[in-house]
Design a protein that fits this description.
The chain is built from 5 helices and no strands. The protein has 126 residues and is mostly helical.
Length: 126
């Protein structure tokens, strides 16, 4: 229990450091491009969506796969094609809904918002 908590804290810390380095390393090269309020909002939603996606991927994809490998592939255990599609579909739909909001479209901040959302989702999934 304690080791899982420490592992989660370390992986979250590394994900946030990676997001910060990616944000500051790439987006600061564009003047006025990285400091849009909608982009920072997308970082927040990306952390939330990435965390949910990571939990779903672990519970619905990795653990059944590990169970299949550990039980030498017995029938009735393991991955289901519907869960594979479901997890990918949920992440895609919610990303699309977040980037379709009128606040993002009105401000013309689609590139920075999409980049920020993808960076945060990737950081939390890793």
């Amino acid at each position: 229990m304690v080791s899982e908590l420490v592992l989660f804290q370390l992986s979250s810390f590394c994900a946030l450091i990676g997001m910060t380095l990616g944000w500051r390393g790439v987006m600061t090269k564009f003047a006025g491009f990285y400091d849009l309020p909608t982009a920072w909002s997308q970082v927040f939603w990306g952390i939330v969506l990435g965390g949910v996606y990571a939990v779903m991927a672990d519970g619905l994809l990795f653990r059944p796969y590990f169970t299949t490998v550990a039980s030498n592939g017995t029938i009735g255990t393991g991955l289901n094609i519907f869960t594979l599609v479901f997890v990918a579909l949920i992440a895609s739909v919610f990303s699309h809904l977040l980037l379709r909001r009128s606040r993002v479209r009105k401000g013309g901040s689609q590139p920075s918002s999409g980049w920020a959302l993808g960076l945060a989702i990737g950081g939390m999934t890793a």
